[in-house]
Structures are given as structure tokens and as C-alpha cells.
Amino acid sequence: MGRGKLRIYLGAAPGVGKTYAMLSEAHRRTERGTDCVVAFVEHHGRSRTEVLLHGLEQVPRRELAHRGALFTELDLDAVLARAPRVALVDELAHTNVPGARNAKRWQDVEEMLAAGIDVVSTVNIQHLESLGDVVESITGVRQRETVPDEVVRRADQIELVDMSPQALRRRMAHGNIYQPDKVDAALSNYFRPGNLTALRELALLWVADRVDEYLQQYRSEHRVSRIWGSRERIVVGLTGGPEGRTLIRRAARLAEKGAGGEVLAVYIARSDGLTSASPKELAVQRTLVEDLGGTFHHVLGEDIPAALLDFARGVNATQIVLGSSRRKAWQYVFGPGVGATVARESGSDLDVHIVTHEEVAKGRGLPVARGARLGRSRIVWGWVAGLGGPVLLTLVLNTVHLGLANDVLFYLALTVAAALLGGLYPALASAAVGSLLLNWFFTPPVNRITIADPRNILALAIFVGVALSVASVVDVAARRTHQAARLRAESEILSFLAGNVLRGETSLEALLERVRETFGMESAALLEREDDVSPWTCAGRAGAGPPVGRPEDADVDMPVGDHMALALTGRVLPAEDRRVLAAFAAQAAVVLDRRRLREEADRARALAEGNRIRTALLAAVSHDLRTPLAGIKAAVTSLRSDDVEWSEEDRAELLEGIEEGADRLDHLVGNLLDMSRLQTGTVTPLIREIDVDEVVPMALGGVPEGSAELDIPETLPMVAVDAGLLERSMANLVENAVKYSPAGRTVLVAASALADRVEVRVVDRGPGVPDEAKDRIFEPFQRYGDVPRGAGVGLGLAVARGFAEAMGGTLNAEDTPGGGLTMVLTLRAAGPPGAAAPLSAAPHSAAPHAAAPLSETAERQAAR
């Protein structure tokens, strides 16, 4: 059975109708006789959505216990055993409850697809991993539950479920999305018109990019060369001259006028050696175009106008921006120039903009090197000069008698001109024809092939020798010039490749895309296999050409070692291009090895970190937990002994020792459990608006009375925190401060407001901590000086910082003036009523929140 197909309904925000559209599609398929089941769909109390579940088979969910509550999750094993044709799976980015088969729901979907089950799912734009920073800048909330972009990109169908912000807010106000008690908070926070508009634009642009990829693939597969102006895509032709910056800015302004405009700057390196560009200026222009949101491309081309037009049509461009020619007036005798040629040959599907600039008609200012391979026109003119020139010269010299010596010099000059124009063979033809005409018309006896005077024989011999020598020198110079130009073009490409590596642009796909662009190919793929008999596998590819199963099936294959090859499709490359291709292939192999080594290093680092945590945990259990256990056991044994008659005071003292030991054990185990939650990312803050003076006093219950004093003004603004996490963080900070404070010195806990933040300071007068150790004390199992006064495993400060960051705050250490250490806990001040807690204002499937690996569905079940 083949792999199943994935269809995704993508929405800009909760409530646009993704689940409704998915269920409607399920009813349509069921009516057509398709075996369709509901694997997991959450209607969130929306009556219209709930109605659509009627009539559809639902696979029973799996129940999981977590933190004393019962949750329901998708039962993957049951779905695989049922093996339907189509399965409906809501909320693709959902994080499963610990204990489920996979950590993420999209991983469950991958297993269904691998089993041949078609899946229909839903996801919001803010859940895409690559858009996390953008969504946070728009909404002010970091989305913790994400799905890799590649998972969504691989979907066979992506359908956008769209709704205007005004209509969505009306749905919210009518109670069609959230419960009535959450509507006001949602409308004033996440569902503000600006937020919804920006998220809608993100969704539209993302889907438009995917549509553009499908379009490019279709055009490539069907070899469509005509431009389809589906969106404005502007190509800027750069020469490396100073006018390039003006062209890039003009193109950026043109792109801004059209929806979804895109700028592609391209520099075409000529392989004929006629021009060269300043690498420094090209680097500046590359930076400029990337800063303006465009892309820079470097392409080899024999004919600059043709290469520019081929590139523009290859990327489906709609406009080309070129600068007015910098050539002087007399230089137009050599041709109309690139701009005029491109404008003439662009056809009706490409608009060409010729932009004026300050460098117009001031000269190219670039070094000129003549002749790589002599062009066809020069060779033709060389033959004309070599064959027709002597005849015309003979007619002229027959009318003007200048003497044999002068006649020989004229024919020699004509031979040199033929060599300069056409190379060796036209010069040889000119020398041969010229010597025959000299002998027949100007060497006595005239009109005969014989030569009477031996000195004339010597003159003709010298003439032929000089002509041949000059022609040979010109031909060798042309060959050397071609080689130098070719090497220069190759060095530009290799320098560009090295620059990419130095800039950190070492993505294998990006490198293969650069190979494809540089050589004008349809696709490029890096193939590898384990041994000589194993099948080839694709390690990475770029382009939309047909897939390549073996290197032999490609138009060009470049071996890299024994079991790796770079394969390109599109055309056959000349042999002289393979040197540069070999460099690209070697670099691709290095990038692949580097990526795998990095992945192995990450795995090794994770294993090492896990081993370190486990080792420290075992040490803590064997050492720090043994003392209170030994004390408890000794006290219990004493109380159970029949040999000693304990007084009431002794019995109370032993019981007090048991209680203290149990408290110490409870504190140690609590810190160990908290750290394990932080390490596994299962801390779920429930953000609420509270007063600091409601929580902080409760954190002092674990320290001796009178060891800490409070200074918390009643005028402080409320803070947006999780009360339980804040209390636990403050308790650890205060206990740590009391532990290291000198006897008789109290710990000060003070709070103050600063702009939109509230700072809580825990000040002690202990020995303090050097600057270089201030960050290290927050690491797990770290105890400064490793000489704590009292039991502990070095987790208190690590847990406090972890909880602070989970609530969106910070925890840092500072020196106390006069000696000691001050812990500064910075918290977010609550905004206007209803604005501080977008985390709890909406269900998980509807709005992002700060750090909630459990869905809002699970939270509601826990509350019940």
C-alpha cells in the first residue's frame, strides 16, 4: 500500500471555520461511499460544529492520566487497527499528553500517512514554526505549540479558510467561537482588528508562496516558457557598476506598488572575458537587495542579453529593470548594447524599464580584454578581409604605382588586419592570395607566375613568413585570452562559493539551488549510496525537474568519492564547465557531512546532558537524601524501642526530628520533580492578574520566623503571573538567601515598579558571589563553593529561574551594596483589564499562549 495523502485546512486565526470545512468535506466523501472516520475532532462547545459530527463514525479516544487529572487523546493504535480510507485529525500542531505514543500530533499523522491512510487536518498560521517570531511581534505572545513547515509543505492539498477580521469579530461577539465569559477578553487582546489583519496577510502570503511553487513545478514539467504574469516579479540586471544601487532601489519601489511583488537581482558573469566587475561593489549591492527583501543571483552566460532573458523567463518575471548604457557615443558602432537588445527581444510578455542614472554616457570604466573565442561576426569579417581584401588592394595599387616594396608592405598590413579580425586561417588565406597577386601583378615579369629577380623571391618569402608569424601570434594570444577569461569566470564563481561558506550559508538545498542557477539547469540533486550494490538515495535536491534515480539517468553527473554523485538535469554541460562543477560537488559533500556531524553532535550533547543530570541525580539521591532518611529511621527506631522509657519532652523532640526530616525530603524531592518538569518542557503556567503582596508572604513559610522582612508597597500594579510558580520561585530564593545570610542578619524582600515591569528583590548580607559565577549558580546541581549550610542538591535557583522564564519574567543575580547577593526577579505588569492574560483567554486550538504543551481541552478537563 502506498503512502496516504494529506489535506490541510489552513486558517489565519481561530474561528474562521477550519473544523467546520473539514467536517463538511467528510460528509461529502461519506456520501460518495468513502470510508471516513473521525480520529480526533474537538468542537470546543460550538453547536454548529458539534452537529456536523453526527452521522460520522468516531474512533474512541485514549484516556491518559497526568498530574492527577484525566485527559483524552487521539488513539493512534485504534486508528491504525481500524485502517479507514480517510481519517479526520483536528489541531495538527497539538502537543500530546505525556504518556502518548508520540510527543506531537503531527507525528501521529505521519504514521497514519505511512500506513496508507489519507488524512484531513487543520492548522492555524501562527502554529507554523518559521513564523513564530513574526507572530510574537504581532500579538505579543510566543506560540509554544508549533508544527515544522516542511510537514505542511508536503501536504498534497492546502486549502485556505479565510474570513475578514470584521466578520470574525462579529462571530466572536455572537458567542460562536468562545464562551460568553471569554469574549470581551479575546476581543480586546488576541482578536484585535490589527492582529487579525496581520495574521490574515501572513496566511494569504504563505499560501500564495505555496501556489507559486506548484506553478513553477507545473511550468517546468510542461516546459512552459511563456511568462504568466500571476504576480509581479522584477528582475534587476546588474553590471557591477555604481549605478546598480539606483536600479535596485527603483525595482524595490516598483515591487511595492504590486501585491506580493518580488525583486531578483542578477549579475551575469560573461565567459568571453569582455567585461569584469568589482567584487566589492557586487558585495555592497548584494547586501542592499537582501536588506530590501529581494534575492541576489550569480549566473554564467555566453551572451548577456540572452542569458538575462532566459533567467527572467525561467523565474516567470514580469518586468526587467536595466540602467541606461554607460558607453560613449562612438562605442555604439560596436552594437546597440544590452538594454536595447533586451528591449527588442523581450517580446510582449516582459516589460523592460530603462532607468537613467548619474553614470550615463560617462564610459564603462571597466577593463576590456579582447577575444576569448573570436565571435562569429569577427571570423566572417576576417575571411572577408583575407580573401576580398587582397583583390580590392590589387585594384587600388594597379591605379597608383608605389613600387614593389610599398606594395609588399600594404599586403602585409592587410594580412595583419585579417589575423586581428579572424585569427590564423583568414590570415593564412590572406598571405597566400596576397603572395599570388604580388607575383602576378607586381613582380617582374608581370602577368606570369615566375620571378626574374632573386631579390624579389626573398621579399615574397619574408612577406609570407611575417604574415604567418603574425597570424600565429594573434591566434595564440586569442587562445590565451580565452583561457584567462575562462579562469577569471571560474574564479568569480569559486570566490562566490567560498564567500557563501564564510557567511555561514551552508544549507545543502541552498547550495544545490546555487548550482542549478549558475549552470542554468532544471534541477540538481546530491545522490549517495552505502555500497556498490545498494540503491541510490537522494540526500538533497533543488529545482522542479524530473526525479533522478541514478546518476547515469541525469544529463550531467559529477562523482564525489565512490558512493556519492552530483546529478543535474536540463542540458549537457561542456567539458570546461566541469571543473567548477567539481568544486560545487565537493562542497556539497562537505556540507552534507557537516550537517550530519552537527546532528550527531547535537544528539551526543543531549545524551551527555542527560547523563550529567542522571549522574548528579544519583549523587543527590545517594548523598543528600540519605541524611534525612537516616535521621527519620533513627528517630522511629528509638520510639519503637521497648528498652528505653522516653519522657514526653524526648518523645516530642524525636517526633519533631521526624517532621523536620520529612520536610527536608519533601523539599528535595519537590525540587527534583520541578527540575525534571523544566527539562522536559511540561511546565504549564496559568497566567492570572494578581497582587504581589498576595503571594510573596506565603513564600516565607519555609524559613524561620524573623529571618526575613517584607517591603512591598500597596500601590504596586498587579502582575501577570502563575501564582503557584511565583510562590515556588520566591520560596526557593528566600530559603537560599536565609541559608547564606550571617546569623542575626535578616533577608530583605522588597518590590518596586519600573515602567511596565515589577521587580522583586531578595537581598542578603552573605559572602556574595563573584561576577564570573553569577550565571553558573543558576545551573542545575550547582552549589557555590559546594559547601552549603544544610541539605540541598543545588536545584533551588535553577528551578526558580526556570519558573520565572516560564511566566515570561527574568531572574538575575546582582551584588548587594556593602556585601552580599541580591536576586532580582522581574515580572510583567498587568495591562488594562482583560489585556494581561491572552494565555487563558481562549482555548488552545484558538489562540496561542505562553508555554502550554497541553491543549486547552486538557486544561478544561483538568478543571472539571
UniProtKB/TrEMBL annotation:
CDD domains listed in its UniProt record: HATPase, HisKA
Membrane spanning stretches: 380-397, 409-437, 457-478
**Membrane topology, from the record:** Multi-pass membrane protein
Q: Name one GO molecular function term.
A: kinase activity
Pfam families, sorted: DUF4118, HATPase_c, HisKA, KdpD, Usp
Q: Identify the enzyme class.
A: transferase
Domain Histidine kinase: start-end pairs: 620-831
- Claim: Phosphoprotein is one of the keywords in the record: yes
Region annotated Disordered sits at 833-864
- In its UniProt entry, what is this protein called? histidine kinase
